[in-house]
Amino acid sequence: MKVHNIYADADGESHFRDVDVAWAHERLGGRMSERLPATGVIFRETGGDYALDWHNAPRRQYIVNLDAAVEITVSDGEVRVIGPGEVILAEDVTGKGHLSRAVSGQVRRSLFIPVD
Hints:
- Helix content is 0%, strand content 52%.
- The chain is mainly β.
């Protein structure tokens, strides 16, 4: 399993990198990671026509797409379409930030899981 990580470098440019989930246990018919810190869950719904201009993540947080994709552009120019069931770790709390927009006019429901 991979996590799409958005981060800012020392010059403020935002980038993507892939982070592999480290498996720690085999239980209940599957693999599990260690328990990771989190401070709550935020439910979010965004309209099928949203297009957010350059912005930073408000905090370090995981974002889990539940039922639709999002297109994210980082300041180095890379664009990813992140689909339902995929996970983002947004850590670009400083720097140039990223763009987010709806894909195919679909309403998107997601979970934000703060890690700070």
